[in-house]
């Protein structure tokens, strides 16, 4: 249970960090770091792709 709580807290912090950055490169890098914290190398790839894709949306 303690491990799950730790992962949940880190995940929420990573989601908050995902809002940082204004350019596509910054959002991709932030997403990659957040993904790496949560799921390792695979999470880094998925997070980077998700961050880059979110930068394409108009604000």
Features:
59 residues; mainly alpha; 2 helices; elongated
Q: Care to give the gist of this entry?
A:
The protein is mainly α.
Describe the structure.
- Helix 1 crosses helix 2.
- This protein has helices spanning 2-17, 24-54.
- It starts with a helix and ends in a 5-residue tail after the last helix.
- With 59 residues, the protein is mainly alpha-helical.
- 80% of the residues lie in helices and 0% in strands.
- The mean pLDDT is 76.
Helix content: over 70%
Q: What's the pLDDT, averaged over the residues?
A: 76
| Helical/strand content category | mainly alpha
Distance between the termini: 38 Å
Low-confidence parts lasting 5 or more residues at pLDDT below 50? none
- What does the radius of gyration come to? 12 Å
Number of strands: 0
The H-and-E topology, N to C, reads as: HH
User: Main beta sheet: strand number and arrangement?
Assistant: none
Shape: elongated
How many helix segments? 2
Give the assembly state of these chains: single chain
Strand content: under 5%
């Amino acid at each position: 249970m303690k491990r799950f709580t730790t992962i949940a807290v880190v995940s929420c912090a990573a989601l908050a960090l995902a809002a940082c950055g204004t350019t596509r490169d910054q959002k991709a890098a932030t997403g990659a770091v957040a993904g790496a914290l949560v799921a390792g190398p695979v999470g880094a790839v998925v997070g980077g792709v998700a961050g880059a894709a979110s930068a394409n949306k108009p604000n």
